[in-house]
Amino acid sequence: MHDKLSKEEVISAIDNGKSEGGSSGRHWVLDPIDGTKGFVRGDQYAIALGLLDEGKVVLGVLAWHGAFVQSLNEDSSPTKIQVCNIENSVEASFFESSEAAHSMQDLTSTIAKKLGVQAPPVRIDSQAKYGALARGDGAIYLRFPHKGYREKIWDHAAGSIVVTVAGGLVTDAVGNELDFSKGRFLDLDTGIIATNKKLMPSLLNAVQESINKQNQSASLL
Predict the structure, then answer these.
(1) How many beta carbons lie within 10 A of that of residue 44, not counting itself?
(2) Is the dihedral of CA 2, 8, 184, 207 positive or negative?
(3) Taking the CB of residue 62, how many other CB atoms lie within 10 A of it?
(4) CB 47 within 8 A of CB 33
(5) Number of C-beta neighbours around residue 203 at 10 A
(6) Three-class SS of residue 65?
(7) CA 37, CA 44: separation in Å to the nearest integer?
(8) What burial class does residue 22 get, using C-beta atoms within 10 Å of its C-beta: 0-12 exposed, 13-18 middle, 19+ buried?
(9) Is the Cβ–Cβ distance between 59 and 68 less than 8 Å?
(10) Which of 142, 178, 210, 215 is the residue whose CA sits 20 to 30 A from 49?
(11) What digits encode the pLDDT tens for the residues 104-139?
(12) Distance of alpha carbon 171 from alpha carbon 178, whole angstroms
């Protein structure tokens, strides 16, 4: 039996993480407080841990659940979670970031209108959005940061695999799988979307139509 690590030893071990990631070998991806501003406000945050193997996410744990939900009570049993099975986008609700820098809310609003979504957006911090989606608390997650923002792998590794194992899909704005093999950042042109398999085709269409409309409007300025 190993002695329990002290708080200082845990912090020191985290600080030793200097991996640049990449397409070869195994790399742990940790965000010890994902959603820092939410944490400071006393709102949503998550502790997110993912494992990359040859550039692919093979394991993910969020502080409050992974592919299973389990109480901190030692005697409790894990419960399998699933994304929602909504097929009609009119009945859907969607998550986006509460941070303005992480979400072009004019674009996400246009996408929602094209889908006929009636519910207002649910804006929360951190990868709790992935967790809520995986648990079926909502149907769609839209993330379209402003130009120049670089997505970091530790903001998506754990959450994306949790949604995938729960039966959902996580892609970029044109339907490609997220590529975690290129180091510390995701090489994305536009944004990230996540939903169940039934809604993904209509979501992709709405996203492309909305982006094209936005680009056309910008070219006229």
Answers:
(1) 20
(2) positive
(3) 24
(4) yes
(5) 26
(6) coil
(7) 9
(8) middle
(9) no
(10) 142
(11) 999 999 999 999 999 999 998 899 999 999 999 999
(12) 6
